[in-house]
Design brief:
globular, 427 residues, 6-stranded antiparallel beta sheet, 3 domains
C-alpha cells in the first residue's frame, strides 16, 4: 500500500516538544503591562531601517497592547497574534512608519518563538527523547515497503533522530553538498550541509526514494535545522550522514554557533543569520521557520516559493492512505489540499491519530463514507504498538503517562533560559 504521513505537534509531544497552547503560554508570559512601555522605547531606539527611516514608538506600543489583549483570551494562540501583527504591517491605511514598526515587531516576535523552540529542542532531547525513543522502536513497521512520504508541520528534529537511531533510510531529496566555516576565526572548522535548489525541488527528484524503503521528508513549514541561502533560492539541511541522534544533535548545536566576528565581536543576527563564507567574508543565511498567518498564499495554483506544497499535492493524489498525527487542522493551505485530494483520488483514505480528537473536522465530513475517514483516539506511540501487535500496550501507556512531570520540568527550564537569554526583557 502506498502511504504517507502528515505530522503535527502531537507527533513530538511524548518527546517533550510543546503543543501550540504550551508555547503560547510561555511566549505570552514574557510580556506584561509593566514592561511593554520600556520595551517599546528600547525597540524604537534601534533604528532597524536606518536613521532616515525611523519607526514609531506608538505603533510598537499598539502592537504590544494587541498581544496583551490576546494574552487574556485563552482560546487564542501565538500564531493568531503574529498574524494580526502581519495584517497591520500590510494595512494600506497605515503610514509607512507604522507599517515598518509592525513589520519590525513581527520580526522580534519571530525571533522569540524561534529561540523558544530551539531551547525546547535541546531540553526535550536530553530529558524525554532518550527516555521514550524505545516506545517508537516499531515505527519502521508503519512505513510502506516502498518509499514513504512524510510531510511535517513541525520544526524539530525528532523524526530525523528516530530514523538514525532505528536505521531507517531518510532523505530531504538534496542533490548537493555545501560547507561553511564555523566563523572567520575558525576557518578550518567546517560545517557540512546538504541542499536543494528550489528550481529543481520536486517529487521526481532522483535523490528521493522511489520504489525503495525509506522516508522522503518534506518540512512544509521549514525547521530549526533548515536554512535558506542565496535569496531563498537554495534550501539547506543538516547532513543525514550521522550514526545516531547524539551526533545529529551535536551537529545541530554546532550549526547554531555559525557566526562572523568584526573587531573581536560577533555580529548579531535575526531571521537573517550572519555567517562566514568559505572566503572568510561576511555572508547571510536565513532561518526557514514559517509562522503567523502568511505561511503560504491563499490560492492553490503553482507559485515560486511553494514547491513543497506542489510535492504534497502530487503525493496526495497517488497514495492510498494518509495518516495525520497530532495536527489541529488550523492551516487552511493544508486543509484545502487534503480536501482537493479526497476528490481527485477516490482511493485515498485518511487515518487521524490524536488523543484529543472529538470529531471529524468540518471540511472532511463530506468524505466520511465507505471507511474513508478513521479516527484513532490515541497518541502516536500507542498507535504504533497497536498496529504492530494488535493489542494496546498498557505498560507503555503507563510509562508515557509519567511524561507530564518531565514536561513540567522542561517548560520550567525553557522559561528560565528564555528570560535569561533576553535579560528579563525581550529585545
Amino acid at each position: 500500500m502506498k502511504k504517507s504521513f502528515l505530522l503535527g505537534a502531537g507527533f513530538s509531544y511524548d518527546f517533550g516538544m510543546p503543543l501550540s497552547k504550551d508555547l503560547t503560554k510561555v511566549f505570552f508570559s514574557l510580556f506584561n503591562e509593566k514592561n511593554i512601555q520600556s520595551l517599546a522605547q528600547i525597540l524604537a531606539s534601534n533604528n532597524p531601517y536606518g536613521t532616515q527611516r525611523p519607526i514609531s514608538k506608538e505603533a510598537l506600543i499598539d502592537g504590544l497592547q494587541l498581544l496583551l489583549k490576546d494574552k487574556k483570551n485563552e482560546e487564542i494562540n501565538y500564531e493568531k497574534t503574529l498574524s494580526e501583527i502581519q495584517e497591520l504591517a500590510e494595512n494600506y491605511n497605515k503610514t509607512q512608519e507604522e507599517k515598518d514598526s509592525y513589520h519590525y515587531l513581527f520580526g522580534i516576535f519571530y525571533e522569540i518563538i524561534h529561540t523558544l523552540l530551539s531551547i525546547y529542542q535541546e531540553e526535550s532531547f536530553q530529558l524525554l527523547y532518550l527516555r521514550n525513543k524505545s516506545c517508537y522502536s516499531n515505527f519502521s513497521k508503519m512505513l510502506s515497503d516502498r518509499e514513504t512520504w512524510i510531510f511535517s508541520l513541525n520544526h524539530d528534529l525528532f523524526l530525523e533522530a528516530l530514523a538514525l537511531d532505528f536505521n531507517i533510510p531518510i532523505t530531504f531529496g538534496d542533490q548537493h553538498d555545501i560547507s561553511f566555516p564555523l566563523n572567520n576565526h575558525e576557518m578550518n572548522h567546517k560545517i557540512k550541509l546538504t541542499y536543494s535548489k528550489r528550481s529543481e525541488l520536486s517529487g521526481d527528484n532522483q535523490k528521493f526514494y522511489c520504489e525503495k524503503f525509506g522516508i522522503n521528508l518534506v518540512k512544509l513549514h521549514g525547521g530549526l535545522s533548515e536554512l535558506e541561502y542565496k535569496d531563498r533560492s537554495i534550501i539547506c539541511n543538516q547532513s543525514m550522514s550521522k550514526k545516531s541522534s547524539f551526533e545529529l544533535m551535536a551537529d545541530y548545536l554546532m550549526i547554531q554557533k555559525m557566526a562572523y566576528y568584526h573587531d573581536g565581536k560577533m555580529i548579531p543576527s535575526g531571521k537573517d543569520r550572519v555567517i562566514t563564507n568559505m572566503d572568510g567574508e561576511l555572508d547571510i543565511i536565513c532561518k526557514s521557520m514559517l509562522t503567523g498567518g502568511k505561511k503560504y498564499s491563499k490560492t492553490s495554483n503553482p507559485k515560486d516559493g511553494e514547491e513543497k506544497l506542489l510535492i504534497f499535492d502530487k503525493v496526495l493524489v497517488d497514495i492510498e492512505e494518509l495518516t495525520i498525527v497530532g495536527y489541529g487542522f488550523g492551516d487552511r493551505h493544508i486543509n484545502d489540499r487534503i480536501s482537493n485530494a479526497m476528490v481527485l483520488n477516490p482511493k485515498l483514505k485518511i487515518v487521524i491519530v490524536d488523543p484529543t480528537i472529538s470529531r471529524i473536522p468540518d471540511f472532511l465530513e463530506q468524505f466520511n463514507y465507505d471507511m474513508r475517514i478513521k479516527k484513532v483516539h490515541s497518541g502516536i506511540a500507542q498507535w504504533i504498538e497497536y498496529c504492530h501487535s494488535g493489542q494496546w500496550n498498557y505498560e507503555q501507556m503507563s510509562i508515557l503517562k509519567e511524561n507530564e512531570q518531565q514536561r513540567a520540568i522542561i517548560q520550567n527550564r525553557v522559561e528560565q533560559r528564555i528570560k535569561m537569554f533576553y535579560s528579563q526583557t525581550p529585545q
